[in-house]
């Protein structure tokens, strides 16, 4: 059928599809036009003459002269062009394409045309595939390496080549422990210690009472003796009940020593309880039976003395009883049993042995044994039997330090290091010995955990300067790995050859800003930095605002210590530093008067003589004239009235003045002091764990019991995933390497620099468990602990986790917050409404120091947010606002006011001399320790 062409279509058309002339425009151009129009439900088919038919799911508006191909319209179920035959499609044309071509109309059934798939045009080999997980499913926690570093267990017996025990010892103490005769007592082992002690006391007292009742009246003197003998007979049973296991033996003692040191809870628990057998022994020694016991012990001492005098070292060392170097007071309780012959390995315990049982006797007997052992140690050393001499000093005399000296003197460095670490000698000694022994990884680990790098380098430098330099380089690397760039600079600076290696650390500190930036500028100038660094330092010294006073003082103090490599720059900056000190009133009260005078004279000696002669001495009172008016009225700081655009889960003010905020699944942002967003990361975060140096942060998002943790480098602003950690709570700060978490009944310390989470240390557990989240600073940590049915406050010193104190809370004591320095805050239960003239109450502060308090206006519903060594009292007001009084002990620092807020929504963070207070509505206040307001902002979605 012939048709008459009506000419091209014009104007705006509604196109249901297009015919693309592929032979004319090319396949690449046609594919680009198809992808530009592609929508869900579209179809692409190929016509017999090579053209493409693109059918759209719904019509689109297009100008005819700008159409990608021949526009098509749908009429009566058929696709026709806008310039087709004016005759309507036939009834059987439904589902066909009517296309005029060559003076005729071609009819193609659309469903029968070959189907083209644009998805096959993509080169999937060059496209990275990322499999997305559902948002509502928590991440699987990464496997945790729970293998704690093992304490060394030096085997001095093997090193001393002592032979196995004698035939006589085998007959007295069989190797086979025999059947477990305490199977019936296994249910008693599950009881708590208090119940076991009560049962043990009952097992001792009941037979005594029965004997006293059964014997006749006329044998009263004999009844006491028989009762005492009966008590001695059943003493092992009582001891068994108390210990909850087998009676003690040399093999059991050796096993306990091999198991490692007692947990911190046991070490801080006070004096050990004496078993009932000690009391019975004291009673028996007041009876005529004491002569028999004493004669038996005298024979033992005579035989032991002869063995040492005759230098029968094998028998003497095996039969010798240990004495303490601390004197009779440290020897322990009284026992009637003779010391058993040593049967197991003669190795020192990993930790100093607790006092055990001792034989009755005068102090002269113990002095005799101590002198005997010292003579033996000296003789063994002269004979070249070094390990046996060390065993005598460490195990028999309890003088582990002297044993280490002997081993080191004769080149047994590895054994000396094991003994020093196992007996908890000074960490600098342990580090030095491990370093000299060649186990440098272990030396660095001990130095890092105990903070002993400086002392170890100083001690090693006296004998081996080269080894001290290598240890200092390891110290620098350890600081850098932990994000402590300023610490790396300070560690490297005494060694001139290491100074160029910390240029990268100095540049990172400059990028981070804050007071440490000033210190980094001075060090770069001392290394010969160019004009850009000099101009930066000069611009900082020329500022006059109070917000940069701390920066100028730090720069001036560091310039007083270091000379610039360029003499011209040194004179120019020394003069500018003196002018800045006159404006700021000196170097501040952080330095002593002697130190301030020394640094000022150093600057005067290097400054321009004419300018220095005209400058007056700094007046500490003159700085108040320059200070901002808000410093004089620091007590009250009001947050923005309007809430933020984004919810706020956590916030931390940085040394540069910026504020890092965690907005949950809305991501993480870095805000300028005025609220502008300077950086953002698409990283969900509900918790910010900032390192003590302010260089890195861990961003943690919680999914049930699992935290997804990402590391953020604040200098380069790069993020990298670390791990998924299962924990109940994460501390708000860390030292750059070790992260404190709460996992059920334990405090768990994780290594964040390991490839996967690795446990470094466990605290608490068993009968002690945390009663709430701990408070931490760089120097200490405190926590409320449920221990043996009572509540206590425990305090540790960091980084070594030395348990320093335990404070028991009585019935009248309550804890609304605990601080890292051990202070406990208790708000009175009954509070009057907070009014300007009345309604005040006294908040109790107790725990580490004597009871004290601070009187403040309080009201029902007061919350106590706390962090580190600072706390706040968030008090609701009648107008709907919240007044949060931020305090350091009994000193009230300032009051933060949040309009239209809830007390429980106010939070606090203490970090690097700054207190950050925020509420869940997205309002943040940052105030420095000197009272200056650093930031007053609200979160913004822009």
UniProtKB/TrEMBL annotation:
In residue numbers, the region (Disordered) covers 134-153, 162-189, 246-274
Q: Where is the composition biased (Basic and acidic residues)?
A: 164-189
Q: Where are the compositionally biased (Low complexity) regions? A: 246-269
Source organism superkingdom: Bacteria
Question: MoxR-vWA-beta-propeller ternary system domain spans which residues?
Answer: 10-158
One protein family per Pfam = bpX6
User: Which protein is depicted?
Assistant: MoxR-vWA-beta-propeller ternary system domain-containing protein
